[in-house]
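Section 5.1 Outputs to date
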Amino acid sequence: MSEVLTGAQAIIRSLENLGVTDVFGLPGGAILPTYDPLMDSKKIRHILVRHEQGAGHAAEGYASASGKLGVCIATSGPGATNLVTAIADAHMDSVPLLAITGQVGSKLIGTDAFQEADIVGITMPITKHSFLVTRAEDIPETIAAAVLIATTGRPGPVLVDVTKDAQVSKAEFVWPPKVELPGYKPVTKPHGKQIQAAAALIGESKKPVLYVGGGVVRSGASASLLKLAELTGAPVVTTLMARGAFPDSHPLNLGMPGMHGTVPAVTSLQKSDLLIALGARFDDRVTGDLKSFAPEAKVIHVDIDPAEIGKIRFADVPIVGDANEVITELNLELQKQPKADLNEWWAFLDNLRARYPLGYTPADDGKLSPQYVIERIGELSGPEAIFAAGVGQHQMWSAQFIKYERPNAWLNSGGAGTMGYSVPAAMGAKVAQPDRLVWSIDGDGCFQMTNQELATCAINNIPIKVAIINNSSLGMVRQWQTLFYNERYSNTDLHTGTDALMIPDFVKLAEAYGCLGIRVEKEEDIDKAIKLAIETNDRPVVIDFIVSRDAMVWPMVAAGVSNDEVKYARDAAPIWDNEE
């Protein structure tokens, strides 16, 4: 069945037909024609943000919490460029995102017209694809193609830029459109011989490690992974992007590897003879100095993106495919062979677990210990909650001290490290999962970048909880200045909570945005404040936790050095200086 619609109507109808129910956006001149039929839609809820970056991160949080497509809309020029950070973030972390932007009229393109920006050119390196649409009749096919690209293969962001004249003019609306994408054929099913080769390597291994990345979460492979781990008896490490992919309570879980990973997780990779990399990309924050990373290990590398395999580390057995499908077939193959004896390997690892448990030194300056605050948030909220972190020390403590038992419970900006991610991402997650408790765990620096979205939350009845881990500074930068720059604290003091200035007063700011504002300065008040936040669901809640600025994230592997140099505390020697 076909009918004649304007291009703007075709955009809305296409989104409705594709099952989109929520979009985050901010109108402006070049996208205004699309906002008119959006007002009439009975199927799509539009949430008006206060900044386009907030729309992008909200769409990311929506997608990451639900596994569905996130959608954001902006106008041309600065509206579109304000989406760029969120688009880049989604690209780094493989988040399925559709960004729709308005563009000046097609005859004005290239003339430096008012609010013109070549957003297709700007975003081409940070999207799976970027489309420019100049004809109304091309809109249904383009929107359908964009959604297909964003949600299949390795998920990621796709941008559709629509000129104003394409939105205004009329054309026959044909649905479903014929989508032809020559050359785009993601491989999901693995090659049988590679599965056999992987199973053979696993059978021979004495010191295997399941190195689990965010691809396991994106592919919904957690149940298959659990079966694989129990079939092999191999230790599991979950990267920053994979926290929750494998239950923290499981005895095979060694925790998070990398720059601030647990000692057992970091060391297991270094000492292993076989890395089974599942949806992981050998990021520099995991490998440290690449030349010395896991020197004795062979590699089975599973990834849906063939470009990732062999990019950083040679793969002895490369397997291109969807993580869930690959792990499922590998499990079937492994059931045909006896389970390897890993008792000696586990004796070594269990000794590390006993000697180097994850912990922290309580603050001695009268301020709260940030690790304890975050630990209590996790314990009082439980595993069904969603936790969206900003970037920096509080992000690492949230990854370390909250126990994750399920996928999609932990949201963060892993690859791009985007300050300002947390509040809008939590907002998007709450829209996607309204029945779950959703926390934004943020720093006082990150919070000031996107806290205007609290207005969006208050007006739209999106009662997120925000925990500001307020050390009155750019904490992770300050930690590096302490360790590597002779305690020369150049431009890292924020004056938000540990001195007389307190600019801004976060409690007053929260109240101005229609939220409940709470300040906590004593340890005995922590639980009471968290419980009050959890019980308050008629508005967002902001808790300003005044924490020690001298608290640091440990363990730590300094940037660019070997993982063998992992240190447990500031003045401690590298662990292996004492062990060997």
